[in-house]
Amino acid sequence: MLRTLVKQGGTAAQAALMHKLVSMSDEERERLVDDFWNEVGEGLDVPDGFVERLSTMRPRLPEDPSAAQLEAWIELADLVQDQRFRAAVRSYLQDVYGTFPGSSLAAAPVWDFIHEDGAKIGEEVVAAYRSGLAPDSPRACELVVRMAGAAADAMGAQSTTEQRERLARAFLLVEQLRREDSQEEERYDATHGRYLSLVELINGTPPSTGEDDAAAFAWIAEALRASTRQ
């Protein structure tokens, strides 16, 4: 890591900071993130296990990181020790996931489906939306029916036209909230979203921009409703 810093012409102060980070053992780095999530999650009134699930999203700095990865790690290491940042993340999570509808999204079955079992079909659905496929096309309907079926299975329920209609209303609600609450979006970007974006950068994973999420939600809702008519 120091070799990368030297290549980029870092200052002595930056080198000293990097040396401090490099000299940390893996256990110390893990503890840095653990301390952050332990304080953020202490007494938080959110669904059981939610903070533990969030805490699994953590940085893994590669052996020979890029300058951008180094900068992201420096910023993240500083942020997770900042009491104001901890308080801001804690406040955001409580406000968003401590009440409906956020609390229902944070519940284990729903969260696990979104981020694990439902991730693959979700990627296919979003890819179909981005390709310009009409939401009432047979292919779009096939995809959202599969998605709704997988969601129903995860919840121990049965996939029906009524369930797809309820799911469509849920997507439209999220779409409306995303469009109307730009202030909340800015708050996310400055708190939990900032943590996640830095982790993505450090880990070298593609960033989740979310720029067209609202439009995608509306497309999915339309496809779900179209599927109930076929």
Draw up the topology in text.
Layout (H helix, E strand, L loop, with lengths): L1 H6 L4 H11 L3 H16 L8 H6 L11 H13 L3 H15 L4 H5 L1 H10 L1 H12 L7 H17 L6 H20 L1 H9 L1 H12 L9 H15 L3
Helix pairs in contact: 3-6, 5-13, 8-9, 9-10, 10-14, 11-14, 12-13
List the keywords.
230 residues; mainly alpha; 14 helices; 0% strand
In short:
The longest helix is centred in the C-terminal third of the chain and has 20 residues, at 161-180. This protein has 14 helices and no strands.
Describe what you observe in this structure.
Helix content is about 75%, strand content about 0%. The model has no long low-confidence stretch (mean pLDDT about 85). The chain has helices at about 1-5, 10-20, 25-40, 50-55, 65-80, 85-95, 100-105, 110-115, 120-130, 140-155, 160-180, 180-190, 190-205, 215-225. With about 230 residues, it is an all-alpha fold. The protein has one domain (about 1-225).
Number of domains: 1
**Main β sheet profile:** none
Low-confidence stretches: none
The helical percent reads over 70%
As a percent range, the share of strand residues is under 5%
Number of beta strands: 0
Give the topology string: H per helix, E per strand: HHHHHHHHHHHHHH
Termini distance? 57 Å
Briefly note the structural class of the backbone. Answer: mainly alpha
- Average pLDDT for all residues: 83
Name the overall outline: elongated
Q: Counting H and I runs of at least 4 residues, what is the number of helices? A: 14
- Rg estimate, integer Å: 21 Å
